[in-house]
Amino acid sequence: MFGLFSKMDADKARQLSPVTLAFVGDAVYSLYIRQREVESADMRPAELQKRTSALVSATGQSELLMRIEGAFTEEEAAVYHRGRNAKKATKSKNASVADYNRSTGFEAVLGYLYLTGRYERISQLIEGDNL
User: Fold this and answer.
1) pLDDT tens digits along 23-70
2) Long-range contacts of 85-90 (CB under 8 A, 24+ apart)
């Protein structure tokens, strides 16, 4: 049965398309950043949107990735490379191709970690804690 935090077997998650993993990871990252911003300050929704959009953009994700990429496990690095190198159906309107590819790889890692139930690791990577 499906549940919001149901875990997928790692082998099954690895078999998913990297673009599918990035699809999930995009939602995970967006929700994480939105919740963090809501908890950090009492702001109007318009201000929250402005603050979060810069962080969740391909450029913002690429900047974060440059700081944490060296901390990926071997498994995470493999998922990242699959996502970064995947053929994508769309192009970014506001980011370079390199930033867009890196952000897709990062989102694939987050999607993989989420689907396999590694929520603490998601926090470690996004916050840069204990890397």
Assistant:
1) 999 999 999 999 998 888 788 888 888 888 888 888 899 899 989 989
2) 85/18, 86/17, 86/18, 86/19, 86/22, 87/19, 88/19, 89/19
Q: Pick the catalytic residue from 26, 42, 99, 129.
A: 26
| 84-128 confidence digits (pLDDT tens) | 998 876 666 777 888 889 999 999 999 999 999 999 999 999 998
- Known active-site residue 26: yes
Between CA 64 and CA 7 the distance in angstroms is: 26
What would the 3-class secondary structure string for 13-69 be?
HHHCCHHHHHHHHHHHHHHHHHHHHHHHCCCCHHHHHHHHHHHHCHHHHHHHHHHHH
